[in-house]
Design brief:
95 residues; 4 strands
Length: 95
Amino acid sequence: MKKSLLLTGLFFMVLNSGYSQSFDLGSWNILNLKYNHNDKLSVFAEGQIRSLKFYDNFHYFEYKGGITYKFKNMLTLHLVQEVIKPTGKEEFCFA
């Protein structure tokens, strides 16, 4: 009984796995910037562009920035603002 149940479950997992992923390549581009003002204070910025297909179907972009302050060896404060914007092909262009 256990063996037939295991084989049935394995059969459906193999059957379903053929439809779970697409074979298109996607892209995920990230740009990070960081400036250390001194040992305790730093600022950073990051931008990301994600595409469901290889530079052809842009999914969304995001950008964030923040300030980091180190009080002592064991305590650090991060203040971060992040914006994520879903986008369609018609809204996103480099020109």
